[in-house]
């Protein structure tokens, strides 16, 4: 069981690196768009691992965000991601990882729940928020949609493309195509050499 858990964690290493790099570099290129950079990773964790491990890893992702953030008290995102994971874990059977369009909706759901919990936590720690219709629309509707598009483009699409390309039949096809191409190039090269 422990070996199975470590092998599943190893498969999450590439999405973790992509999300971590997105957390660092996305604000540099798109400062006006706010995304939850670890939302795709947390939804992958929820879909693949058990509830206690998913809660721990979501909390760890929140701690990483807390270490990077200066606007909120330490532990804010850790608590936020833990509560959001706890709330949406029960819906994982409806969002299959094999259908990446549907799985991107799971990231949208996580982002919506996390943002809503963020509003509640800001009220608990007595931070004055200026809430209006535009803020609610942008934070509760537009930002989760951007998170879903981000999850699809940056994390989920490369994973599905990797799975598609690494199928044993496709690898055999690529090897055969490579050897045919090299044979044709070798024949053409010998023909050109003989003409000179």
What this model shows, in words?
The chain is built from eight helices and no strands. The protein has 196 residues and is mainly alpha-helical. The mean pLDDT is 85. It is elongated, with a radius of gyration of 22 Å. Helix 3 (39-48) crosses helix 6 and helix 5 (76-88) crosses helix 6 (100-124).
Number of helices: 8
The assigned structural class equals mainly alpha
Along the chain, the helix and strand elements come as HHHHHHHH
Query: How far apart are the first and last residues' alpha carbons, in Å?
Result: 66 Å
Produce the secondary structure layout.
Blueprint: H1 2-11, H2 13-29, H3 39-48, H4 51-68, H5 76-88, H6 100-124, H7 133-165, H8 168-195
Helix pairs in contact: 3-6, 4-5, 5-6, 6-7
């Amino acid at each position: 069981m422990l070996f199975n858990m470590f092998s599943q964690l190893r498969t999450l290493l590439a999405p973790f690196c992509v999300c971590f790099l997105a957390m660092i570099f996305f604000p540099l290129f798109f400062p006006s768009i706010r995304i939850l950079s670890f939302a795709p990773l947390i939804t992958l964790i929820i879909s693949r691992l058990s509830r206690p491990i998913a809660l721990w890893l979501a909390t760890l992702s929140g701690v990483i965000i807390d270490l990077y953030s200066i606007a909120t008290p330490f532990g804010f995102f850790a608590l936020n991601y833990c509560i959001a994971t706890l709330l949406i874990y029960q819906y994982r059977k409806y969002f299959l990882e094999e259908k990446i369009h549907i799985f991107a909706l799971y990231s949208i759901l996580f982002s919506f729940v996390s943002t809503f919990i963020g509003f509640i936590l800001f009220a608990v720690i007595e931070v004055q928020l200026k809430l209006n219709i535009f803020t609610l629309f942008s934070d509760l509707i537009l930002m989760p949609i951007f998170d879903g598009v981000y999850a699809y483009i940056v994390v989920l699409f490369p994973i599905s493309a990797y799975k598609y390309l690494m199928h044993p039949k496709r690898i055999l096809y690529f090897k055969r195509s490579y050897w045919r191409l090299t044979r044709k190039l070798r024949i053409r090269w010998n023909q050109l050499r003989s003409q000179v």
